[in-house]
Amino acid sequence: MNIELGKLSPEMGNAIIEAAEEVMEGLWDSHFVVDVYQAGAGTSQNMNTNEVIANRATEIMGASEKVHPNDHVNMSQSTNDTFPSSVNMAGADMIIAKLLPALEKLEQSLQKKAEQFMPVLKSGRTHLHDAVPMRLGQEFSGYAESVRAVRRQLQNNLELLYQLGLGGNAIGTSINLEAEYTAKILKEIRKRTNLPFCQPVNIFAFMQNMSAPIRCMMTLKELAVHVIKMTSDLRLLSSGPRTGLAEITLPSVQPGSTIMPGKVNPAILEMTHMVCCQVIGYETAVSTAGTAGQLEINVMMPMIAYTFLHSIEIMSNALQTLEAKCINGIQANEEQCQKWMEESLALVTGLSSKLGYDMASEIGMQADEQNKKLKDLLQEKELLTDDVRHAIDPKGVV
Questions:
Q1: Tens of pLDDT along 215-233?
Q2: Confidence of residue 358 (pLDDT cuts 50, 70, 90)
Q3: 260 found inside a domain
Q4: pLDDT value at residue 95
Q5: Residue 3 resides in a domain
Q6: In terms of Cα–Cα distance, which of 286, 314, 281 is closest to 298?
Q7: 226 is catalytic
Q8: Which residue has the higher pLDDT, 372 or 284?
Q9: Are 352 and 328 contained in the same domain?
Q10: Angle at the Cα of 336 (from 331 to 341), degrees rounded to 5?
Q11: Domain check: are 16 and 165 in the same one?
Q12: What was the pLDDT predicted at 257?
């Protein structure tokens, strides 16, 4: 862009472009020595990049002219506008390329299981105690919808990530910059990425805050909360297999114990749970760093950038593995589901409308004390009319 505006000679500008492309290919990774935890809102990282590009561009030109890291490579820009803009671009790219596809595939697999398990009746549970019957597919449909809702929220978050503060320069006033630079650079970025990057609604708000990563991290935290709930449920539903609920069977992926032969643990669910705990912690770190903005800049940008992008990476990888290595292979244990449902006394709830709450409660307590099935006790008491039979039929209440 600086070549087009006549600020750089074509020879030097093309050398800088070639050097930058080599950097993007990873050819000079060993020369990037600045730690994530650095001072200066990313200035150290930016100058590390500028210096590597400047030195390599000088070599490309045959040392006929020395390329300066500030005067030439950093021309028309500042750390303060390029660093947060690059974070937004990287975040948008990773969410679109990795996280959204992983979420969509997980959602589809959960929905497929919901449909597959819809004929399977089971006992619902609240407070980890017996509740009225439901379908196993209904449980899985809830998991699918939770993933779907967060996926849509992430798609909405992209609108914030598409806003780039390029051209704001040091504090948003575009000092030392040609008027047409911002429009031209954004047009070129849209062309190269095929994404609708644009100027922020207010350049000063963009410079002062890290709103896009903070908002996205909040959504990632919500995703982590939902996934932890789901993986915890699946671990509980698959517990046993002889002394637990054992309503579903998980695919085996590795031996579960170094001392207990044949033991198989829910390894993929545990791994996913750990990743989600990490993301929740990362969200707290990003939110806390977000409060560190003072006046025209937030100096915590490097940590925010690393934590945000790493969260997308590990969450994407975890969800891909969860879908492929666990969800796809889950099977329902219909006999076990039926057994628990028939032994549950929660069906007494259906008697309230037929016999009244007090009598229904009394019958439930008697069935529990006498260790009898509800249907058998009602028959003994000659209360098993067609209406009552229908009221306690699981198929009629789900």
A1: 999 999 999 999 999 999 9
A2: confident
A3: yes
A4: 98
A5: no
A6: 286
A7: no
A8: 284
A9: no
A10: 120
A11: no
A12: 60
CATH number, position 20: 1.10.275.10
Question: Are 190 and 323 contained in the same domain?
Answer: yes
In whole angstroms, give the CA distance from residue 330 to residue 326.
6
DSSP state of 54: H
| Bond prior to 241 in cis (omega within 30° of 0) | yes
- CB-CB neighbours of 328 under 10 Å: 14
Q: What angle do CA 228, 229, 231 make, to 5 degrees?
A: 65
First-last CA distance in the chain: 64
Please indicate, yes or no, whether residues 35 and 69 belong to a single structural domain of this protein.
Answer: yes
Query: Pick the catalytic residue: 252, 257, 353, 390?
Result: 257
**CATH number (domain holding residue 374):** 1.10.40.30
Sign of CA dihedral 38, 40, 45, 51: negative
- What pLDDT does 138 receive? 97
DSSP, collapsed to helix, strand or coil, labels residue 194 as coil
212, 287: one domain: yes
| Active-site annotation holds for 252 | no
Beta strand 129-135 with 121-126 is antiparallel
Q: pLDDT digit string (tens) for 293-345? A: 889 889 999 999 999 999 999 999 999 999 999 999 999 999 999 999 888 87
The verdict on 114 and 214 lying in the same domain is yes
Q: End of a domain among 282, 302, 335?
A: 335
Kindly tell me if the per-residue pLDDT of 189 is higher than 90: yes
Question: Domain tally for the chain?
Answer: 3
User: Average pLDDT, whole number, for the chain?
Assistant: 91
Active-site residue identified among 30, 64, 127, 129: 127
Q: What is the Cα–Cα distance from 60 to 19, expressed in whole angstroms?
A: 8
- Residue 258 has a pLDDT of 54
Q: Is residue 2 part of a domain?
A: no
Residue 180 identity (one-letter amino acid)? E
Do 134 and 22 belong to one domain?
Answer: no
- Give the end of a domain, one of 73, 101, 117: 73
Could you tell me if 283 and 374 lie in one domain?
Answer: no
The range of the structural domain enclosing residue 369 comes to 345-397
Q: E strands along the chain, which residues?
A: 121-126, 129-135, 248-249, 331-332
pTM of the predicted protein model: 0.89
